[in-house]
Design brief:
By secondary structure, the chain is mostly helical. The chain has 21 helices and 2 strands.
């Protein structure tokens, strides 16, 4: 039978099933209704009108979850069944901001913080694409979504953090001009609905890392520029935290390494030991000859003593390159300033053992003394 025939004769069909298949009548009738409810709930609604006890909440959840209905037709159908009014309102809010979503996405968002956050992110992505977005209206819409769907999962601080983070991403192409601090940051610690200055600093650090993770090892990479720019968004006359200042130094170090020819991805620097990074830079492109630049990197990496450490590794590379004049200069300098480092001891020992450059033996021996 066609769908329209079943719908028009649903009352008689139900009576026949109940009369001749009483034990399985409900199950059989519901199977027919479900078969047609993928795109159209007319049969299920007709059944709901005459045998409401057949149509359970679990059945409606299952049918709506499998349905392809979107937008106003979905909302209208849900209202006919007086089903999940909060979800219906939430779907309408999404529509108001250009985000068309299935019932299943909204329904499942209530089951975990991860799915709840994913829904909010999709909502914001759509809302931010609107011409001349109104930040206050968008945040109010986002807050209403939270209140309708998962007030116990996403608290005010988490909600504001998600909103602020996505707004930073949205305004990145405009160098964060016009960022509405008054909506996001609570400088005076007067309300828990905004981010405290400490939490704001943490968010800036997190966004800076995001930009670094996207960066490539090339000069004037846009993401590296944004990684530094976002750290300047400290409101008013507030001072940046020590962590932010440290992050700025890290970005300077990455930029200097790139200037010296490093091909290491910026995202990997924080997972590598400082000494390995320094050795990599010094060992490429004859950078051992640029001891001042190498010392700058050593300092930014937090190595101590920064200059001596850089010079020691430069001496190692000079020896490997048989650059005796540069090696002699570094050894003599280290002899007069800093000798008590294992790296210096071992490079001097290896040179003496090799029998090369006998005229440097005295300087090498002196440099080995702690």
């Amino acid at each position: 039978m066609k769908e329209s025939q079943i719908r028009d004769n649903i009352n008689r069909i139900v009576e026949l099933f109940e009369e001749f298949h009483s034990k399985t009548a409900a199950e059989d009738i519901l199977q027919i209704a479900r078969t047609f409810s993928h795109k159209n709930f007319a049969i299920l609604h007709s059944l709901w009108n005459i045998r409401r006890d057949y149509v359970s909440k679990d059945l409606l959840i299952s049918c709506f979850s499998e349905s392809t209905l979107l937008g106003p037709p979905l909302i209208c159908t849900m209202e006919k069944f007086e089903f999940e009014p909060n979800i219906s309102q939430a779907i309408q809010i999404c529509l108001d901001f250009g985000f068309e979503t299935k019932f299943s996405v909204v329904f499942e968002s209530r089951t975990s913080d991860e799915l709840a956050e994913q829904l909010l992110l999709r909502f914001l992505k759509s809302a931010f694409q609107m011409p001349e977005p109104n930040w206050i209206m968008i945040f109010d819409g986002m807050k209403n979504l939270r209140n309708l769907l998962f007030p116990e999962i996403i608290d005010d601080q988490k909600l504001m953090k998600i909103f602020a983070s996505e707004m930073l991403s949205k305004l990145a192409n405009e160098k964060f001009l016009g960022f509405p601090f008054h909506l996001v940051v609570d400088i005076n610690s007067e309300t828990s609905k905004k981010l405290s200055l400490e939490n704001w600093h943490d968010l800036l650090l997190s966004k800076s890392l995001e930009f670094i993770d996207r960066a490539l090892p090339k000069l004037n990479d846009q993401n590296l520029i944004l990684a530094r720019e976002v750290l300047t968004l400290v409101p008013g006359k507030q001072k940046p935290s020590k962590e932010i200042e440290k992050q700025k130094e890290t970005i300077s170090m990455i930029e200097t390494c790139i200037q010296m020819g490093s091909q290491r991805l910026p995202a990997t620097y924080r997972f590598c030991s400082p000494e390995i990074i320094l050795q990599e830079v010094i060992s490429s492109n004859k950078n051992y000859k640029q001891v001042k630049k190498c010392a700058e990197i050593s300092k930014l990496l937090g190595l101590k003593p920064a200059v001596a450490k850089a010079m020691a590794y430069c001496a190692v590379e000079a020896a490997k390159s048989d650059d005796v004049s540069t090696l002699q200069k570094y050894i003599q300098k280290l002899n007069s300033t800093c000798r008590d480092m294992p790296i210096i001891y071992f490079v001097c020992k290896d040179i003496i053992t090799s029998g090369k450059w006998q005229h440097l033996k005295e300087d090498l021996v002196n440099c080995m003394k702690f």
